[in-house]
Amino acid sequence: MLAAQPWQLALTAVAVVVGFVLGVQVRTERSIETNLQVTSGRLGEVAYRYRQVEARQAALRSRLAELRQEIADEEQQAAAGREATAALAADLAQLRTLSGLTPVHGPGVLVVIADSTRPLKPGEDPNLVLIHYSDVHAVVATLFAAGAEAVAVNGERVVGTTGIACVGTTILCNARRLAPPYRIEAIGDPHVLLAAAVARGGILDELRAFEFPVAVTAESDVRLPAYTGTFVHQFATPVETGR
């Protein structure tokens, strides 16, 4: 018997491989037809549609990533906005406190002054034994000058527009009539306020000299109400920036 030539062996091997591939392809097509109900003639169309779906999915994934980034950016901006709002709220709260629009408490002093009980001599002016608005105003001014952060007279908060005036035998403060005794409460360093209030030659020293009842005490917790009146500015207007 003649020996097989090399080219014959190679051709045989190729035929075997091609046959195997064709067999696998046939089985695959049959499996697809059975499981997916797609004929072999439509496999190209299915593959094309599959590639289209994959492309759309890739586009959607890209858009999803973009939207997630936009959400993250919006969240960062919102967080920055909340921080700015919180800062503004803190500034507003501080300004309201400084303006006297919120109740406050803290250490300070209590000053109580009242009309004199000294009997009048014949022919003496009754005003000589009465506490006047100027006396109350002087006490308030002394306490503010000593560093008081908040002051109230008989529970009436003193603010930048507060006026103190006499109305007969009473005193008008923030359009409210006040009668003696006058309780002047101030929040601040108790030692400094007390020293200023009882200083020699001061208003309280003068009132004592004329036999007016005067009491000054340091307090650990003075509680002052908020100013409940209105602020009316008829002539004062803010200065525009740059002018």
The residue-averaged pLDDT reads 82
Query: What is the share of helical residues?
Result: 40-55%
Q: Specify the structural class.
A: alpha+beta
Mind telling me which CATH architecture of the domain at 104-118 and 128-224 this is? 2-Layer Sandwich
Quaternary structure: single chain
Strand order of the largest sheet: 3-2-7-1-8
Write up this protein.
- This protein has 243 residues and is α+β, with helices and mostly antiparallel strands.
- The protein has a domain at 104-118 and 128-224: Protein of unknown function DUF881 (Alpha-Beta Plaits), CATH 3.30.70.1880.
- It contains 5 helices and 8 strands, in the order H-H-E-H-E-E-E-E-E-E-H-H-E.
- The protein has helices spanning 6-36, 43-98, 133-145, 190-197, 203-209, and strands at residues 104-113, 150-153, 156-157, 164-167, 170-173, 176-178, 182-187, 214-224.
- It has a 5-stranded antiparallel β-sheet. Strands 4-5-6 form a 3-stranded antiparallel β-sheet, with helices on one face.
- A hairpin with a 2-residue loop joins strand 4 (164-167) and strand 5 (170-173).
- The termini are far apart.
